[in-house]
Fold this protein.
Amino acid sequence: MTNQIKTCEFNIDTACVEVKLTDGSMVSIDCIAVENEYANNMYETSELDYLIYNEPMSYVRLLLSGKVEDYLRNNTDYTPLSNLR
């Protein structure tokens, strides 16, 4: 399905990424639901937000690939407060 994506754009009014496919159909991805499912802390939420605002096509491809958890694990750096003591 990733090769059928024509355009992607974040709609701030609905908090959704709207995807137009080559066949003319549209898909709307609820970004809040995605964050609730995958982001376990503010750093992971921030990483997803970066993609939504700056690279919505990469965001959609990541979701369609099913590798969101791997992406967040490999691209999010943070140190829990419990490790700072």
Q: What stands out?
A: The CA atoms of residues 6 and 56 lie 12 Å apart. The mean pLDDT is 91. The helical segments are 31-38, 42-54, 56-65, 68-75. The radius of gyration is 14 Å.
